[in-house]
Amino acid sequence: MFSRLILLILTSAKGAPNLPCSAEGATDSAPAAASGVVGSVAAGVLVIDTGQEPAARCYHSRMSEIHESGATEARGAALHWQLFALVYDLFPLAAILFFGSAVVYLLHGATPVTPGSWQSRIEFVLLLALCFGYYGLSWRRGGQTLGMRAWRLGLRGEDGSVPGWSRLLLRWLLAWPSLLLFGIGYWIALFDRQRRTWPDRVSATWIERRPKR
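Now predict its structure.
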């Protein structure tokens, strides 16, 4: 017959957070006969209780903490969904860039700009601004581009908030080398436990798959 609480913690391979209450706080200081042994297994934690009240409080406090914080680690959207959205976005983006090029063409007297001239540099900057404007405004207003909306994807910050313009610009800038270097910045999501790409990590943003409405 044991007079103290026996608390065994069996954690999974990923580990579990520390208990919010100690074994000393969950036991009686004076020896007492056990009224019964109650075993409960939940979320990877095994608690063997001798029936004392402090032990029950410790157990329920622990379970509440696991339930609120989430026992499973959050993961981003699968890479293939992100690639589908990226291809989908090429169509509205092409229309926007075509419109921008048409405006420059008309402003230049309905004649093409000379490659290498200052006008061509201005046109290049304008098209880049339109490209970022499409992604930036879409991410700020609802966290979705047209392609992301089609596949139920959404962008958010690591803390769940809407990312600011600086983080959105950083993410957009990092997407270019991530794609141009044989897509290495995105392929790493296949080996990442949280399915996060290089732009995700550096810009502290996150692409998640949203549930069906």
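Residues 79-209 form one domain.
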